[in-house]
Specification:
It is a single chain. This protein is 25% helix and 17% strand. The chain is of the alpha/beta class and 295 residues long. It folds into 2 domains: 20-122, no CATH class; 125-276, Hexapeptide repeat proteins (UDP N-Acetylglucosamine Acyltransferase, domain 1, 3 Solenoid).
Length: 295
Amino acid sequence: MSWLEPRPLPVAASAAYDAFFADLDAKLEDASTDRNLLCRDLLAQFLHGRSYADLKSTAPMLALNLDPRNVTLEAEYYAATDVEKFARVKPLLWLWYSFDLSPAAHSVEFGVRFRRALAPHIFKRVGRNFKAFPGVQFSVGYNLEIGDDVVIHRNVLVDDIGGVTLHDGVSLSDFVNVYSHTHSPLASADVTLKHTTIGAGVRVTYHATVLAGVTLSDDSMLGALGLATKDIAPHTIAVGIPAVPEREKLRPEMPVTVDSRVHARPADRKGNPDYPQPWEGQAMTRAVREPVKRG
């Protein structure tokens, strides 16, 4: 039997949700829609059950912070953030994050569907049947590419400032972190942007972390609490800190699209114009102990 079984809603609720999402989709597709107003009005309803105008008259500070024009997000302080692209997605990111504080966000049926409606208007690309659960956050959103049947579970961070690609069937488990930028140990403001790729069918399991520029090949797996500092080959299960290959899945012959052994990753980019040159890496630091050897 399937692990996931259908759980239909009452007919009246289902019809009400269909009408809500038809209206939301139409507004998001309409170029004349002011996304800031859409965001604040929806949040007033989801979080407080009142109109924005009512909140503004009775609780002005609360109302001000529902409007994305009156708040700042971390990415707005990054030198590498594209101001024009971020301005377009910021209202929907604020809506995504703040919606997660509402009861509706914790209904799987409604919450997943709500985030799925926002996704095409935030991400660089998103495929069919995308699922995201409460607590998922991104750095800029517009540098994230998502394939078909991707699932992002609770409290995941996808730092896409340097570019992240999640291929078909990727699963990011609870509390996973995926990064696409690094800081020089000599100067934290010296940032390098590195594209991170997670191949088709990859499972990144509970509390694991994928560092910037790493490629997880198709059908590979990163074990719970694992720290991927290097690429992982196809069908390989890697575990530990840092993660190392532990087992190989015995699979019948199957096509592989993302293979870290031959994958051409986009060139690294510098994220701060004050530090335009590549960091010289190990030559600018000195080991103070022997590295720990495994196996």
